[in-house]
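Mods, move this if it's the wrong board.
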Amino acid sequence: MNQTQTAPRSLPSPSEMLAAPDDDYVSARQLAFFRALLSRERDALLDAARRTTLHLQDFESTPDPSDRASLEEDHTLELRVRDRERKLLHKIDEALARIDNGTYGWCEETGEPIGVARLLARPTATLSVEAQEHHESRRRMRGR
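Not the wrong board. Structure tokens:
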């Protein structure tokens, strides 16, 4: 870092983020907070995927058809959860890329701020609440 750049102070708490003035929106400190939040979630998802892989490799052969069916159902449910998490992992990677390219926190449709409260609730959000509601109402009208 050169002398004109300063490292962000300690990361703000969520309540500090909500209380921050509007001109602090997506500041270096806030971006560092969201990067850390997203990175922790990413690491947790990768760890869960690793544990699932190990668990599935630990296949227990059982002669009882009911036990085998139950075990297979458990594996199916676990894989379904991991698939959802894989999709979330992709969204997290996209959010981290938006932090890097300077577009994080801004609505893809309107260019307006998404808002700290929404980003705290859903750090991978790409649309403001209003744009998301509009998007969902269009989907409902199309029957999807």
